[in-house]
Amino acid sequence: MTVLQLAGMYQSVANDGLRVPPRILRATIDPDGTKHVEPRPDPVRVVTPQIAQQLRQMLVAVTQAGKGLQRGTGVDAAVPGYEVAGKTGTAQQVNPACGCYSADKYWITFAGMFPAQSPKYVVAIMLDAPTHGQNAAGLFHQIASTLAQRDQIPVDPAPAPMVPLVVP
Fold first, then answer.
1. Alpha-carbon distance 130 to 91, whole Å?
2. Per the CB 3.0–4.6 Å rule, which of 27, 49, 85, 168 could disulfide with 116?
3. Mean pLDDT over all residues of the chain?
4. pLDDT tens, position by position, 28-41
5. What is the CA 61 to chain-centroid distance, rounded?
6. How far apart are CA 129 and CA 62, in angstroms?
7. Alpha carbon distance 47, 51 (integer Å)
8. Is the dihedral of CA 37, 147, 65, 89 positive or negative?
């Protein structure tokens, strides 16, 4: 899966189940200067709004640090004053010398959205063989914090409720 495909999946969840195919070009310009705007792709429903909402809630739990055993794997992505939803990922790289999985080289990913219940941004990150201490969730935190400040997204004064991690 590419980072663009990963971001596209999260964009569908953030957009209440509507997938909007990505596009690279907004417009083309002829040599004579005539501008042709490329049409926006039609959105495609991939999940119901209810399922998208449930997924966002589950992804919020990943970024929360609760008491006891309830601690998500992406707590470094949390941004104070905002509810963040996302998911971490780790995949072993292939060692070309043996054609087997590497014991020490990984791809580290984090994909997320914020504010979680009414997302304005989706960010997907992949780190290729990061050194010790590099963290995709922490990088998401930095990007989200910068975007929130730049775009003056209002902070929620109430603390985000803890999302319980339970199996039905």
1. 12
2. 85
3. 91
4. 999 999 999 999 89
5. 14
6. 23
7. 6
8. positive
DSSP secondary structure letter of residue 72:
-
Measured between alpha carbons, how far is 105 from 55 in angstroms, rounded to an integer?
30
State how far the alpha carbon of 57 is from the alpha carbons of 11, 63, 77, 94, in Å. 15, 11, 15, 34
Rg of the Cα atoms in the chain:
19
Q: For 1-18, how does the pLDDT look when each residue is reduced to its tens digit (9 = 90+)?
A: 899 999 999 999 999 999
- The answer, yes or no, to whether residue 165 has pLDDT greater than 70, is no
- Six token digits for residue 82: 């905002």
Q: What is the pTM of this model?
A: 0.85
Contact yes or no for 84/145 (Cβ under 8 A): no
Residues forming beta bridges with residue 36, ordered by sequence position: 28
Whether the CB-CB separation of 142 and 19 falls below 8 Å is answered with no
Q: How many helices (DSSP H) and strands (DSSP E) are in the chain?
A: 3, 7
